[in-house]
């Protein structure tokens, strides 16, 4: 995917080179299938009292360990497929085709546009009057004459001692066709 592409939750953004992980999965799957057959034989022997409890338990433990290695290999292969965690728009593509990546390195930035909000810092003397659910209006100097419905989604109960303000998260009401984008400066009035 490229910057500006719309994506949905679970959509593949990129596939990492996975030859080693695929071979590991194939190998652990073959071992697991082999162990299942062997364990079934052990069950038959145990039922006929030809092996003792310890041998049976050891075979059962070995089967479970092989199953876990197979499951780990499957997860490692799945982790080579990078998927979007939200519905939204790709705002940044950090990794390029052919570049080396490491674990926990950010490869894409995806923004959930269905939930736009503004962080507003309000003077502390208004803390008791502002509460979750209050209506608000958002507008921007960049789009003259247009204002949009919003509501207070979160009110921080802490007043910053340096600025004397508390933080309020004001979310844009759904479905109002608003052409306000992430990162824009906006004006917020809480009603």
Characteristics of this structure?
5-stranded antiparallel sheet; 2 helices; 29% helix; 3-stranded antiparallel sheet; single chain; 32% strand; alpha+beta; 191 residues
Measured as a percent range, the helix fraction is 25-40%
Instruction: Give the biggest beta sheet.
Output: 5 strands, antiparallel
What Rg, in angstroms, do the CA atoms define?
A: 28 Å
On the 0-100 scale, what is the average pLDDT? 90
Topology order in helix (H) and strand (E) letters? EEHHEEEEEEEE
Low-confidence stretches: none
Indicate the overall shape: elongated
The strand line-up of the biggest sheet is 6-9-8-7-10
The amount of beta strand, in percent, is 25-35%
Number of strands: 10
Number of helices: 2
Structural class designation: alpha+beta
* Oligomeric assembly: single chain
Question: How would you sum up this structure, described in words?
Answer:
By secondary structure, this protein is α+β, with helices and mostly antiparallel strands. 29% of the residues lie in helices and 32% in strands. The strands form three sheets. Strands 6-9-8-7-10 form a five-stranded antiparallel beta sheet, with no helix packed on it. Strand 7 and strand 8 form a beta hairpin. Helix 1 packs antiparallel against helix 2. The longest helix is centred in the first third of the chain and has 29 residues. It is elongated. The mean pLDDT is 90.
């Amino acid at each position: 995917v490229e910057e500006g592409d719309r994506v949905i939750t679970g959509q593949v953004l990129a596939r990492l080179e996975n030859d080693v992980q695929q071979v590991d999965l194939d190998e652990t799957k073959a071992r697991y299938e082999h162990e299942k057959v062997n364990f079934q034989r052990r069950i038959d022997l145990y039922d006929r009292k030809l092996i003792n409890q310890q041998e049976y338990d050891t075979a059962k433990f070995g089967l479970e360990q092989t199953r876990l290695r197979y499951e780990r290999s499957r997860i490692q292969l799945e982790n080579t497929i990078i998927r979007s965690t939200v519905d939204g728009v790709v705002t940044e593509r950090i990794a390029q085709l052919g570049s080396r990546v490491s674990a926990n390195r950010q490869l894409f930035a995806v923004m959930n546009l269905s939930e736009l909000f503004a962080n507003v810092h309000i003077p502390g003397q208004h803390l008791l009057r502002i509460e979750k659910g209050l209506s608000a209006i958002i507008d921007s100097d960049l789009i003259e004459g247009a204002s949009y419905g919003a509501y207070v989604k979160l009110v921080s109960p802490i007043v910053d001692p340096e600025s004397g303000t508390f933080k309020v998260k004001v979310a844009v009401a759904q479905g109002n066709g608003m052409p306000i984008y992430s990162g824009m400066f906006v004006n917020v009035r809480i009603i």
